[in-house]
Task: structure prediction
Amino acid sequence: MYSEKRMLTTKGKEFFDSIKPEDVCRYMEYWQSVAPKTEDEHYQRWLFAYMSVHTSWKSNVRGYQAIKRFKQWEGDKSKLHRKIEDARVGFQNQRTRFIMDFKEKFWNNVDDFLHRGQRTWTEWRDHLVKRILGLGNAKTSFGLEMAFPNECEVTCMDTHLFQFYGLDQTKDAKHYKAIEADWLKQCEAKRVPSYIARCIYWDKNQNKRNSRYWSYCLEK
Result:
């Protein structure tokens, strides 16, 4: 069993110790400025999440830009498939099927994706995971992170954060919620929103000062 006593690696401790309050404020201000304000924008964040599965961040951006103007393909499965195929992000058959299924579920019950009601964040994420196809815990969390960047209390524990905890995502998936809980605990101790901490960590690994090298595509 994965021991909570050794949950956080030395690398992890060094990262959390390195977080500066001024960076937290800067990131929070930016991410709030690009948080979705309309139902269409909320829907687009989920499209970005779908295009993030099994791909690099550059392909993710390219794939999202191909389909972000969803009214151009909405309801036309063949047109969506061509756009995804032309974007060269891979898995076009699965992405098309999953996105077309998601389109129906989102627009038939928008409130389910915009308001968690009395659920905790984890309960809301788990509820959505069961409802929609093709995302799972990590990418469903990513959709919520982009929609509610400064409030979200679930985290996209991707392969990089599994490595952050000294684990292999392909072998240690059963520890997802344990390391997510620890990440949230560390963030609470540092008074930094979990998504903001994740962005800071990811951007540092990319040698970037902020997220705009990829998030610019969410700005308009």
